[in-house]
Amino acid sequence: MGATDGAIEEIRARALDDGVEFIYAMFVEMHGKPCAKLVPVSAIESLMTEGAGFAGFAAGPLGQDPSHPDILAMPDPASYTVMPWQPNVAAMQCDPTVEGELWPFAPRVILRKALERLAERNLVLKTGVEAEYSLVVKRPDGSITVADERDVDTLPCYDARGLTRMLPHLSQVSRNLDAMGWDNYANDHEDANGQFEQNWQFADALTTADRLILFRLMIHTMAERDGRYATFMPKPFSDKTGNGLHAHLSLWTADTDEPLFESDGDDAYGLGLSDLAYRFTAGLVDHAAALVAIACPIANSYKRMGVGAPDSGATWAPAYAAYGGNNRTQMIRVPEGNRIEVRLVDGAANPYLAFAAMLGCGMDGVDRELDPGPPNADNLFVLSPEEIEARGIVTLPPTLLHAVDNLAADDLFSDALGTTPDGPYRDYFVKVKRAEFMAHHHEVTQGEIDQYLTLF
Questions:
Q1: Model's pTM, two decimal places?
Q2: What is the phi/psi pair of residue 248, to 5°?
Q3: Are 192 and 156 in contact, with CB atoms under 8 Å apart?
Q4: Which distant-in-sequence residues (6+ apart) come within 8 Å of 119 by Cβ?
Q5: 314, pLDDT greater than 50
Q6: What is the spatial distance between Cα 124 and Cα 355, in angstroms, rounded to a whole number?
């Protein structure tokens, strides 16, 4: 499973040319936390043939306890990336293995296997993401506030003044993205005070997931160096817009790299999509009530979502399983006739798991030839619950517990996320997330004390 002599020499030569002294051998656990060992380039042969050793149970939810053998993380040479904010270090994303076999609890392995199954159908999933984050500082009492004390407008979205005050940070991120070859094409102040988004070009799903993990690490590191905190938390402030991770998806041929979501003239609903794209969309809508557990995977995620008309400082997160054209009240928006935008995913999502889950949903729609029906043109946030119900539109679950219960009941995800020695990874995910929800549920909050302490 180790790298060939040619691959080792290629990485060694690239590191020498790039002035790299160390390699981050990286992988993520269920939550998407970046785990790494710092390996000197002098040990590159050992790293690429034997892997970097980790006690998997200590890293996070990886299906291990202290009795399990070590994880050996095997670097993917295609992921080699010099980190411009620390130019003597390069990162390599790894596939965790145990006793010579790919470890089925590892999110990158789960996505890799899903994409391999897709490749058997001569298909490639390409994706892009819109990674929103907030820059904050901590007060002496531990609470947080927006890092830019002047960023207090009620309508801060796209504000040039807020953008200008953060120009040193944003422009350096842009330079770093281009230095890594990702082609940064936009940087903006988002809808919440202290919230930003920076965009780069789409790629195959595994590459995009790898890049997002590195992007998050970069943003956290740069914020820390400036005396701030960066957070991708879905809802860091109760009165401000949350952090989403809108995902753009399309299928392409594997052998000729031809796009398959664009209409060839026979467009069922006038959005510029092919029949394949509509069926893929229908699968996502059909499984949305369970998919949300993976796309919005923490208790805080469901404070970003909600029913009701959004204003700046509230939410733009979808509340219903529906699709439409260039309409931001839908779970799935079709901005152009060559891709779909899944607006469900939030900043806490593990991209490897999210892409694997969305791929499974979409291909189920393709295989069953599902019809999504006519696109929704209305502002769903202002429709009454009665009208939503009359149209047969599913309301997304209100809490993580509701979502994981839906996930546990939807057997599609047993196949989409693969099998482990202990059963479907879906079941392991449900177990971990139910425990996570209950741990938060049992915490007594200040809000409860304020409301109930002397009420009775």
A1: 0.96
A2: -100, 130
A3: yes
A4: 254
A5: no
A6: 12
